[in-house]
Every structure is written in structure tokens, then in C-alpha cells.
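Readers of this paper often ask what the protein records in our data store actually look like. An entry from our holdings is shown next, in its original layout:
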Amino acid sequence: MRIAMAGLATSHPYADARTLARHGELAVWEPDAQRLATFTGEHPSAAVAGDLEELLARDLDGIVLTVPTPQVPAALGPVLDTGVPVFINKPAAATRDQLTAIDNLIRPCAERVLSSSVLRFAPAFRDRVIDPADVLAVRATVRHDVGIWATGYNPWQDTPGEGGGTLVTMGVHGVELLVALLGPEVSLVGAAGAIRHYDTLRSEDTGVIAMQWWGSGIPGTVEVLGVSEEESYTVTVHTRTGADEIVIAGDLGYEGTIDAFLAMVGGAPSPVPWEQTRAILDILVSAREA
């Protein structure tokens, strides 16, 4: 099995590669010399390509795409042209223009494209099923500190018009979980963000996203808490009899996500319909616009 790591723009591809290396050979392209050196130090046998074109010219079985979000539309076309399954690290889009561009590219071949928060595949969550008829409201609470951005690290992630800022980059986890439970027939009701602690951020460190499902009318809320000593994710499902909490901590679903991608490499369709991923991205883009 030959898997290409197309870009190393965030921490995710390093974790992905540790799992993938147990299943086959790795090839990598990354224009940043320091990131590339970190990767090859951990995977000295990985084949290094000088540019994306050279990487994609190899005989590949799958591609993990992790370039800065503004660069995804330009890179995605050549990546999809290879015809192999593709995993796009989240979020695949953070602005309306970015979303429109990748939507046009992905729709004709959506069965071989996966883009998701890893939390969908976390053991504590992946097998959960709820009956919408029993639900009064849902809430997802995302606790993930963003203090590293306050130091100037990866400024594109913290810039609203590029990577979406905290509301998008961390909010995707909560929106993903709620859409996984209740489906993609959802629209934004409102959004807000604030800087409560990290004064040098370009976006926000605290936010809220409110949405509602069309058919059922169920309201949902995503709380984004970017000032936190511990990383954790909680989904609360409110019913007439009380509240059911799903807490995701420890195993966040990294290996489960790669297992799902490897199943695609083996011939299975994407486990997350593009309709769902597009709905998640639309909520995030709309929240950013709001």
C-alpha cells in the first residue's frame, strides 16, 4: 500500500502517518523545510517529492491532503485527478468561495473523498444512535486551547478570511458531532465570538453556534471554549426524562479515522456522505459570516 502525505500544514498528518506507516509505504511533499525535517526524522524511509506534481505522479493507493485551507481548492483538483481515495484534513473549507470551489470538484466523485473531524470515529461516539422523536435539544461543548495561535503559530488558521479562526477550526468538532447524530438538514440560527483571554488572537477564543434542524425543529448549540487546561468534547442530548451526556476524551478517534480511510483504499465508499460534510462546512462558513 502506498499512501501520499500531500502537505503537513497542521499536527494531524503526523498522527495520521504513525498509523498509516504500519500498513504500507509513505511518500510526502511539504514546502516548509522544518515541517518536512520533522516528518522525515520520524519516517526516514518515506519517499520525498519536490513538489505536489511529483508526488502525484507516483503509483499511489491513497492521498492524505493537508495544506492550508486557502490552498485546498487549487491542490484538490490534481489530487482528485489521480482517481484514488482522498482524505482531506478538516476543515476542508472556511469561506464561501472555498466551499463553492471544492463542492464543484468533489460532487462528481464524492464516494472516494472523506473529510471529517476525527471525533466522529471516537469509540465513545461512533456507535451512538438517537431517535430524533425523543430529543428536545442538543448541545456540543468543545474544549480545546488555542493559546498556541496567540503566539503567532500558523496565523492562517487564526485568520477568519483564510482558515476560519477558532469558530471554524474548533467549531467543526461540535458541528460534526451534532450533524452525525441528527443529519444534514440543518441551518444556522446565529453565532457569536469573543476574546476572553488571548488578546493577540486574530479571531476569538470563545464562541457559540446556534442551529436548527428543518424537519424536526430540534435546536442545537455548539459551545467553543478555546481557553482550557484540558482537551475534551461533550455532547448533551436533552429529552423529556433528562439529559444524556457523551464525553469524548482520551481516544479521540485518530486511528478510527485512518481505519475508515484505509477501508476506502480497499474499495469501500466514503463512510461520511458528502451531503453531511457539505452541511457541516456550510454551517461553519455561515457562522463565520455572521
In short: DSSP finds eleven helices and twelve strands in the chain. The longest helix spans residues 274-289. Residues 120-251+279-289 form a domain with the Dihydrodipicolinate Reductase; domain 2 fold (CATH 3.30.360.10).
